[in-house]
Amino acid sequence: MRIAMIGTGYVGLVSGACFADFGHDVTCVDKDEGKIAALHRGEIPIYEPGLDELVATNVKARRLSFTTDLSTPVADADAVFIAVGTPSRRGDGHADLSYVYAAAREIAQSLSGFTVVVTKSTVPVGTGDEVERIIREANPGADVVVASNPEFLREGAAIRDFKFPDRVVVGTSDERGRKVLGDIYRPLSLNQAPMMFTERRTAEMIKYAANAFLATKITFINEIADLSEKVGANVQEVARGIGLDNRIGTKFLHAGPGFGGSCFPKDTKALIKIAQDYDVNLRIVESVLAVNENRKRAMARKVSQALGGSLRGKTIAVLGLTFKPDTDDMRDAPSIPLVTGLLDMGAKVRAFDPVGMEQAKQELPSITYCEDAYACVQGADALVVVTEWVQFRGLDLDRLKSLMAQPVVVDLRNIYRPEDMRAAGFVYESIGRP
Ligand SMILES: NC(=O)c1ccc[n+]([C@@H]2O[C@H](COP(=O)([O-])OP(=O)(O)OC[C@H]3O[C@@H](n4cnc5c(N)ncnc54)[C@H](O)[C@@H]3O)[C@@H](O)[C@H]2O)c1
Fold first, then answer.
1. Atom 4 (ligand 1): residue with closest C-alpha?
2. I need a surface site. Which of 171, 200, 203, 311 has the fewest CB within 10 A?
């Protein structure tokens, strides 16, 4: 199959490289000339484990190429995937669809022969209808089917998620469209990935419902963590105790500083806006978003309380800045409101992140960036663990303590055991544990 991938970001590059690895002929297109030039030099513009090797192998095999001009790849393609960004629109929180519609207009001009145009970006219900309208208006003679194929990969585990998905959702009622997408994903049948064919609007809805549900699960356990702290229960054991019930499941039950990242905040907001447009109340999702926003702001107060209620003149060491480990993605990371809160309360902040510091500097320019965890805690009154990178789990506790001005650790990811921390002489605060 010949595939054109429009948008070569976290989703487009991973999907394009994985499709090429399945044996398809893939061209990844992006408007960002710097990104495409970097890819031509063999550099990967994002951090995603294993992606450099996957890209290099498929470029070498001539199954994967990159360009800024979509005309030839679209004309040659059996399927054109739209994987451009759909950020929150400034001001109202609706999904900003301008990139999707602009891509649709450009694609329309170059279509040739039967082509399936597939929206992989996360888009509100009905966007596929509008993409189809745009294409038919711009190119009335085009032989085209517009389908939805939402993406569920997680950054940091994106290649595995793409190759071993829990399911693939394809939204189109057109038989030719189903056949092309069935052929594209056929290699996954070896991994026994269930393929679900449904209507386009249902597929669009599935993606938002999935993210809203996962955000709800995280927010639920965060609230149970707050109560556990007060009543003297251990939220990690509560999570395990409920998660072992198959109806609940153990995943997405890790209490922490609130969800962030490039998807959950914007997608829950967009879902609420879609519901408002249809006069439907999504009170659960609205609460999830509100609770989460409050929680992110509350984390700076938690640090302040650990230091006796004032941060003025204190130095705080922050470990981990990206919204989760194994990515360089800083979009909506919980570290941003936390660090901003610490600065507002008069603290100086030193920070270290294994891969996200360049990105973080754009969001948080006025803090000190350090070369490793030990340099970061130098002279600090408290250490705050914000992102649970594996390398933070095995830090030398005695060395940390000797470098710090005060032995205070606020662990927002529960990566250490309270008894170990106390034995090492730390004042230790975590989430939802006595
Ligand atoms: N990042 C994730 O983990 C994830 C997971 C599932 C779904 N999604 C969804 O996938 C979509 C893409 O997300 P992302 O994180 O990959 O975004 P991204 O910002 O990393 O990448 C989008 C890319 O599209 C390019 N682009 C924009 N308009 C273009 C055009 N007309 N032609 C060519 N290129 C164009 C941009 O330059 C950018 O490189 C979003 O809708 C997102 O919600 C993301």
1. 11
2. 203
Ligand 1 geometric centre to CA of 406 (Å) = 43
Q: Give distance in angstroms: CA of 300 to centre of ligand 1.
A: 31
Mean pLDDT within 68-89: 98
**How many CB atoms lie under 10 A from the CB of residue 400?**
21
| Residue 306 phi, psi (nearest 5) | -65, -25
155 ligand 1 Cβ < 6 A: yes
Ligand 1 lined by 83 (C-beta under 6 Å): yes
pLDDT digits (tens, 9 = 90+) for 127-184: 999 999 999 999 999 999 999 999 999 999 999 999 999 999 999 999 999 999 999 9
- The matching CATH number, chosen from 2.60.40.10, 3.40.50.920, 3.40.50.720, 3.40.47.10, for 2-196 is 3.40.50.720
Residue 28 annotated as catalytic? no
Sheet holding 2-6: strands in order across?
Answer: 64-67, 25-29, 2-6, 79-82, 115-119, 144-148, 168-171, 195-198
The rounded distance, in Å, linking the Cα atoms of 235 and 225 is 5
Q: How far is the CA of 262 from the centre of ligand 1 (A)?
A: 10
Q: Which of 6, 15, 30, 107 to mutate to test the pocket of ligand 1 (most atoms within 8 A of CB)?
A: 30
Type and span of the H or E element at 288: helix 283-306
Which pLDDT value is given to residue 434? Answer: 84
Cα(434)–Cα(429) distance, integer angstroms? 9
Give me the architecture of the 295-429 domain, per CATH: 3-Layer(aba) Sandwich (3.40)
Compute the distance from residue 30 Cα to the ligand 1 centre, in Å.
10
What CA–CA distance (Å, rounded) separates 430 from 168? 37
Ligand 1 pocket member 31 (CB < 6 A) = yes
8, 10, 109, 206: which to mutate for ligand 1, most atoms within 8 A of CB? 10
Q: Catalytic one among 18, 28, 263, 370?
A: 263
CA of 87 to the centre of ligand 1 (A): 9
Rounded-to-integer distance, Cα 234 and Cα 207, Å: 32
Residue 127 contacts residue 119 (beta carbons within 8 Å):
yes
Q: For residue range 167-181, what is the model confidence (pLDDT) as tens digits?
A: 999 999 999 999 999
Are 2-196 and 295-429 equal in CATH topology?
Answer: yes
Inter-residue contact 93 to 272 (CB < 8 Å): yes
The full set of domain ranges for the chain reads: 2-196, 295-429
